[in-house]
Amino acid sequence: MVTEFLMQWGPGGHGPPGGHGPPGGPGWPIGLFFLLLIVALVVVASWSAMRARPRRLSAAERAKEILAERYARGEISSEEYRERLGGLG
Fold it and tell me: How far is CA 17 from CA 1, 26, 50, in A?
């Protein structure tokens, strides 16, 4: 009796005689959940990596940044700052 039970419902069994148990087995929702979880983690990691990259400034933006730094340090006057800023566009 125990042998018959294990043959039907044990590790190699397929459920009741003449059947193969429920389609997909009872564990498919768990498998689907973990598959979706892995996909979500990959998407979030990719998005986070792309967002963390520093933005590259164009040459004009970098020049304006350097000019603003020089003005903040007092290396150039406000008149010279406005004149050079106007030249950068």
Answer: 14, 18, 55
AA letter at 35? L
As a whole number of angstroms, the distance between CA 40 and CA 34 comes to 10
Closest-CA residue to 81 (of 67, 60, 65): 67
- The H-assigned helical ranges of the chain are 2-9, 28-52, 59-73, 78-88
- pLDDT tens column, 43-60: 999 999 888 877 787 888
Which segment, 2-6, 38-42, 56-60, is predicted with the most confidence on average? Answer: 38-42
Query: Which among 72, 69, 67, 62 is positioned nearest to 83, based on CA atoms?
Result: 67
